[in-house]
Amino acid sequence: MKPEVRKTLKNVALISVCSFAFAFSMVPLYNIACEKIFGIKMEKGPTGEETLAGAKINKNRKITVEFDGTVNSKLPWDFQPSQLTMEVVPGKMYDTHYIAKNNAPYAVVGNAAPSVTPVVASSFFNKTECFCFTQQLLKAGEQRDMPVRFVINPNLPEDVHTITLSYTFFINDKATALAKAPSTSPTARSAP
Predict the structure, then answer these.
(1) pTM for the full model?
(2) What is the per-residue DSSP string for 76-128?
(3) Domain membership of residue 28 as a residue range
C-alpha cells in the first residue's frame, strides 16, 4: 500500500473515532449544560419518569399551563399550539409542541420570542428543549411540529394556579434574504 493511501486511511479512521466519541459525549454534555447553565438537574425515577433532581414533588398539586402562539404581521406563517391547555405537576418533565406553516412561495426564517405569565412564574418555568433557542427556517409551504420540553420548579408560589406560555414569531429579514438568495458555489463566496 502506498504511504499516501495509508496516511489517508489513518486520518479517516481517526476522524471516525473522534466523531463517534463526540456524538457519544453529547448526552452527558447536554445534562451538564442544563445543570450548570440553566440550574436544571434531571433524574429518572423508578418508572423512568424524569423529574427535577432533589425536588419534593407534591403529586396533589396541579398547575394549568395555557399555550398561546401568534405571528407578527410581517411573517407569512400560521402558528399555533397543538393543545391549548395541559395539567401538570411541578417537578415533572412535560412535552408539547407547536405547529408552524410557511404560507409564502419562498423560504422564510423566523425567530420566536417566548413569554411566561404571570411574571412571578417566569423564573420557575424552565424550558429544556425549545424551538425558540434557535432561528427556524421553513421552506415554501412547509409545515413543521416544533417541540417544547419543560418543567415547573416545585418551589412555584402556592398562589399561582395557572401559567401561560406564549410565543410570538417574528420574521428574520437578514436570514430570510440569505435563504432566498440563489446559492453559489463555495469557491465564489467571499470571506465575512
Answers:
(1) 0.68
(2) -EEEEES-SEEEE-TTBEEEEEEEEEE-SSS-EEEEEEEEEESGGGTTTEEEE
(3) 3-37
